[in-house]
Amino acid sequence: MSHLKLKGRYYKAAPYENPTGYMIEELELNIGETAFMVVDVYGLGHSEGEPIPKNPAFGTIKMHKIETEIMRNKIKPALDEARKLGLKIIYVTNYCPTIAVKESEFGKYTARFHSYDVEKEFSSNGEALKFSRIIAPRPDDFLVKKQMYDGFFDTNLNSLLKNLRIRNLIYVGFAANICLLTTMLGGFYRNYRTVLLRDCTLAWEYPDTVEGLRNTKESIRYTESFIGFTITSEEFIKVCSSV
Q1: What percent of the chain has pLDDT over 70?
Q2: Contact 90, 38 (CB under 8 A)
Q3: What is the number of other CB atoms lying within 10 angstroms of the CB of residue 36?
Q4: What CA–CA distance (Å, rounded) separates 216 from 220?
């Protein structure tokens, strides 16, 4: 049976006075037990001719452009290789169910932080959650709709993974310090092995962190320290093409 042999990077804190730092572990993932997770990779304006949304996912045109570059040059090629290899492709995406979300703490947060009505912004008939052509799911992909950050919270994601007999999750998507992070934690809590393609993500950055993408870098190190492993999309593609 074929396996993916990856060199997973992680962060070793011991000895605490003088941390070892980044380490590499040889990972051997059974292809039939591995899924490619596409978390919150949605929104228009990433393919040629598509208009940029009124409310870009990362708040500013500058961050939207960085997100587009990651989608086009990192996520899409990695996703294509995952499809060729026959990995199960699972999209996990936001939506707003009819459960009076505006009255929830999540709804109140979105009003405070984003200054928009989450029920309107994430409506099934709205523009915000549409997929750009370059990254849209295919009919044979799986699509899990989540109402909170964590893709495992009150969804059928865990049942889907169990039915598919999945044990390993390879992640791409956004944001590295919000939905992607909490979904990876949700999988970690349920004993799935986590591998993040570290150049296939982007964190929410503040005006004082956007220079150098500091939050993105720290989110990646957090993942490597407390959740699982990371590799680059180039490494992933190279391994896939050699199987």
Answers
A1: 100
A2: yes
A3: 24
A4: 6
Q: Which residue has the tokens 């500091």?
A: 214
| CB 83 within 8 Å of CB 29 | no
Q: Which of 156, 157, 179 is nearest to 169 (CA)?
A: 157
Residue 55 has pLDDT above 90, yes or no: no
pLDDT of res. 187: 98
Mean pLDDT of the chain: 95
Domains of the chain from N-terminus onward? 30-96+132-242 (3.40.50.850)
Cis upstream peptide for 19 (omega within 30°): no
pTM value surpassing 0.90: yes
d(CA 162, CA 33): 10
Q: Tokens in use for 61?
A: 């045109």
